[in-house]
């Protein structure tokens, strides 16, 4: 059975409350539940982790080595400036798919650049919670 880590970065714990016009009303718990069920139907197991702290996210990425077959990762605002998280993803040799609920290329100028995407196997954006499921499919197809 393949093991996938579903990681979410800063402020994603506020989904359902935070800017519903941008992110919708789905909660992080809803997404985690749906992704776990979706992956289970495909023979995979999903562990979930969310943190608002860059160091905790880096530690979790390091701990993923040898444990997970892939990572679905929404880095939140870290997407645009965290070279430390970019380096953590590139150094662990675990295929990672970057996911965003909104289309970051259609938003404010500062949100259009991802420093993490170049070290990921794919980037999925603008598909809401379905993007997380698509990321699972990408990882299972590897």
Description of the molecule:
- Helix 3 (54-63) runs parallel beside helix 4 (83-91).
- This protein is an alpha/beta fold and 142 residues long.
- The chain has helices at 20-23, 28-41, 54-63, 83-91, 130-141; strands spanning 2-8, 44-50, 70-74, 96-100, 122-125.
- The protein is 35% helix and 20% strand.
- The chain contains five helices and five strands; from the N terminus they run E-H-H-E-H-E-H-E-E-H.
- It is globular.
- The chain has a five-stranded parallel β-sheet with strand order 2-1-3-4-5, covered by helices on one side.
- The longest helix has 14 residues, at 28-41.
- The backbone outline, from C-alpha atoms, is globular
- Elements, N to C (H/E): EHHEHEHEEH
Number of helices: 5
Radius of gyration: 14 Å
Number of domains: 1
Q: Can you tell me the CATH class?
A: Alpha Beta
Summarize the structure.
With 142 residues, the chain is α/β, with parallel strands linked by helices.
Topology of helices and strands:
Blueprint: E1 2-8, H1 20-23, H2 28-41, E2 44-50, H3 54-63, E3 70-74, H4 83-91, E4 96-100, E5 122-125, H5 130-141
Parallel strand pairs: 1-2, 1-3, 3-4, 4-5
Helix pairs in contact: 2-5, 3-4
From the structure above, extract its key features.
about 140 residues, alpha/beta, Rossmann fold, 5-stranded parallel beta sheet, 5 helices, 5 strands, about 20% strand, globular, DHquinase_II, aromatic amino acid biosynthesis, amino-acid biosynthesis, 3-dehydroquinate dehydratase activity, DHquinase_II_sf
């Amino acid at each position: 059975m393949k093991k996938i880590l579903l990681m979410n970065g800063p402020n994603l714990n506020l989904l359902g409350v935070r800017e519903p016009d941008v992110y919708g009303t789905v909660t992080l718990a809803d997404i985690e539940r749906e992704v776990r069920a979706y992956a289970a139907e495909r023979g995979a197991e999903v562990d979930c982790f969310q943190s608002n702290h860059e160091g905790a996210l880096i530690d979790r990425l390091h701990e993923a080595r040898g444990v997970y077959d892939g990572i679905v990762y929404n880095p939140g605002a870290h997407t645009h400036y965290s070279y430390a998280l970019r380096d953590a993803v590139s150094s662990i040799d675990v295929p990672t798919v970057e996911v965003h609920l909104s289309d970051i290329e259609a938003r404010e100028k500062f949100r259009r650049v991802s420093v993490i995407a170049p070290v990921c196997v794919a980037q999925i954006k603008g598909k809401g919670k379905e993007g997380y499921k698509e990321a699972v499919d990408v990882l299972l197809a590897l």
